[in-house]
Prior knowledge:
Elements: H1 15-25, H2 28-33, E1 38-39, E2 50-51, E3 54-55, H3 72-78, H4 81-101, E4 109-110, H5 133-148, E5 160-164, E6 177-178, H6 182-198, E7 204-207, E8 211-212, E9 215-216, H7 222-225, E10 236-237, H8 243-246, H9 257-267, H10 280-291, H11 297-313, H12 333-345, E11 348-352, E12 372-375, H13 397-405, E13 410-413, E14 417-422, E15 428-430, E16 463-465, E17 471-475, E18 481-484, E19 490-493, E20 499-503, E21 515-520, E22 523-528, E23 533-538, E24 541-547, H14 552-562, E25 565-572, H15 574-583, E26 587-593, H16 613-625, E27 629-634, H17 642-647, E28 650-654, H18 661-670, H19 704-707, E29 725-735, E30 738-747, E31 753-763, E32 774-783, E33 788-796, E34 802-804, E35 809-811, E36 815-822, E37 830-836, H20 846-849, E38 851-852, E39 858-860, E40 862-866, E41 873-877, E42 884-892, E43 897-906, E44 908-914, E45 922-926, E46 936-944, E47 947-955, E48 958-966
Parallel strand pairs: 3-4, 5-7, 6-8, 7-10, 12-13, 12-26, 26-27, 27-28
Antiparallel strand pairs: 1-2, 8-9, 11-28, 14-17, 14-25, 15-16, 17-18, 19-20, 21-22, 22-23, 22-25, 23-24, 29-30, 30-33, 31-32, 31-36, 34-35, 36-37, 38-48, 39-42, 40-41, 42-47, 43-46, 43-48, 44-45, 44-47
Amino acid sequence: MTAHRPPFRDPTLPVARRVDDLLERLTADERLALLHQFTPGVERLGLAAFRTGQEALHGVAWMGPATVFPQAVGLGASWHPELVRRVGEAVSREARAMRAKDGRVGLNVWAPTVNLLRNPLWGRGEEGYAEDPALTSAIATAFTRGLRGDHPVYWRTAPVLKHWLAHNNEAARDTSSASVRPRVLHEYDLRAFRGAVEAGAVAGVMPAYNLVNGRPNHLSPYLEEELRSWTEQELLVCSDAGAPSNLADSQGYFATHEEAVAAALRAGVDSFTDHGTDASVILGRLRGALEHGLLDGADVDRAVRRQLTVRFLLGEFDPELDPYADESRFDTPEHRELAREAAEAAVVLLKNEPLGTPPHEPLLPIAEGARIAVVGLLADACKLDWYSGSLLHRSTPLAGLRERFGPERVSFAEGVDRIRLRTASGTRLRVPESGAAADAVRGTEGALDPALVAGRTDLPPLTADAEGSELALIDWGDGVLTLRAPDGRYLSVAEDGFVRASADEPGGWVVQETFRLEAHGDGHLLVHLGTGGYVSVAADGVKVAAGRESGGESGGESARESAEVFSVETVERGEEEVARAAAGADVVIVVAGNDPHINGRETEDRTTLALPAHQDRLWRAAHAANPRTALVLVSSYPYAVPEAAGTLPALLWTAHGGQAAGTALARILAGDVSPAGRLPQTWYAADADLPDVLDYDVIGGRQTYLYFDGRPLYLFGHGLTYTTFGYEGLTAAVDGEEVRISCTVTNTGAVASDEVVQVYARAVAPSVPRPHRELVAHERIHLTPGASTTLSFNVPVAALGYWDVAHGRWAVDPGPYEFLAGPSSADGRRTVRVDVPGTAPGPRPVLESGLAAVDYDEQSATVIVDRSRTSGDAVTPADPNVPGTLLYRACDFGDGVTELAVTAAGAGEVTFFAGAGTAELARVTVEPTDGPYDHTTVTAPCHVRDVTDFHVELHGPLRLAHVTFSR
């Protein structure tokens, strides 16, 4: 190799060899600098500056205008992996094209989010694909393949899966711990990540903010034990923003930040996203860890090697060979068409029934020439979420329907409450004229951190005068309000505290456009939720005074005294406007749903499944005026709308569909395209159907379609079309390690349409609690009227298995299994049974390995905690004052044991019982130990034999790790 071309510049060498060569040329300080998100260049080696992380969940985000595709949950609702692969391809092409013009755009993309949609109250449900691990894995694999590209060596972008692991709550997300038993871990959460990793389309993962089993995810032992065992490829683990600091701050898991960063690096975190672009803090902590012997050079080199591998794969060192180096496709006609196609594929028709009066036909599709009233708070909206780019094109339901049917055939009523706010002195809030300055749009310039986009101060603040201005009030639920000025801009508060009509939409990390009316005497105080302050009227304008909690109790009372007391003068209720529009139409389309920045988003879980009362009033008013009313829910998550589902003839749902949402919805409503989306998660009928958002045990908590025992509003996989399909000839046969399944599907109706063929399996006689049914295969197909196709699926026998806690392995019970084929999990049109051969696992061999406390079959009133800071689990009562119980089924004690030994930390008592008896077998008292990780072993006589169930009862704040037995 010549001096002008060192080995790391030689593309003929293996990537690993090139990485090693470059690593050897870097100094210790240069290597350390590569551990922060924003890495400096090394000029003497021609190494450019680099950053990990570019948001790209459903389009390139935070960098200005880009093609905006449907939300991730909408892509999940398409049940269409090939379509989603093409979306991923388009997103990565635009990332490359944008980077060519703006070096801030990164190619290490932080997408997709594969956390399972276990609980529909989770604030970030819009970011996931489905509640089912198989569907999530299929969609995620497709999206990452599109992001990666198909070149055998070079990657178009390098996707990172979020958020490892078991992350489904925003409340206390950095301090709460998910209790995840081994069965749930292996059967549910890990499976969402594994498929895409094994497919070779993933560059790494990002750990979640929360803890799992008492241990922060940024120290997860499963990064090494599981994730990196699935592939021989180097994987880059990027921390979430600020999470390394949390380890010593909010989580208090370590006493010092040096200990924290050292532990994270050794656990497998390779890139630290902390303190924004300022790398000095993290690098200082890492140097301190090295100086104190908490790390060594090999730990640093291991992480650097993983980052450099990604950069080589992205073609950074071979620009002349990089097949994606000249990518320029951005906002192309093909991308616009794909955005519309994806939005159409995401629409789910939940209900479509005839009215009781002629013509006795389903309400949808809308007949040509019909007079249409489009009403509702989202009827003329095209909402973005936190991970959207800025819109290049914008299509609302109203615009789409007017384009499709003609503006003269489509009327509109938004349904806002039109009000004036009257002060105690009799004046009313006035929105002053803004002039040309009002035309500027906040946030379109792109920002690496849009949370830092400041509110506008170039517009005049609100004032008060005798007449005031009419404001549009929307109640988004839980009393959270937005107020909009006559010119369409939302009232917002900037850093100077003044209230202005300055925002095009609510948004930002801390939303500055939301308020609440707080009862006060005969009027109301207006609370600004972003600051917690009260609105007051001063000579220089309307402003937000000190917060309610400012300065303690006396300060809060003082703030209330200085706040303005408002009377709400209602000019018109929204339902009055809606009823007028509905009465004059042939068909009414009510468009309701959420704003993705309000009441359910990152940092904020929802509190209810209910549709906000304001929007509930609107559909009722529309239906009362005109029974030919359809409700379209445009939302990031499911709603519980049993009355609407039982009253209205038609109901649809779609996620926020991106730039082409309105056009797509109009084409569906017109029948130009038959809807064929399917629900990616269960729609429950009421809040009472849900467990606590922090209950991660989908098995014990009977959650998702897999285990839910109640009657949901709509089941997972549900969705109708404008035609009918027949299912015939379902066959299944075991062939070695696969079950070969075949089914013929026919379009028996008069409309060409897609159909989503779904295959579910269930164990007929399971040895442990198993799902009611579980998705094992699916395919979205298109059939013209009368056409048929025969589909074949090869389902691995292993897909029928479960995690056998008794033996610590994946197991497939021999015996009968049923396979059901149909259009949803609730509609198995055809069923076939097969017998799977094999040997039953047998009883639990407790004499060989004892009982790991976490490997229970059932539990009550316990949680799983960390046995040490690095690995291992223990079990403790959820409340030290309430006994916790554990059940271990079919324990084989052979000819009998005479003694047991308990390994535990903390303090308390453990009692043991066998079979169904209530007689105590043994009792162990654990004296206080020196901390939660200081385990002691205590023995006690215990006489039990043969195969029997074994019960354990925990009393007090002890942490049970293990029980062993001796003869």
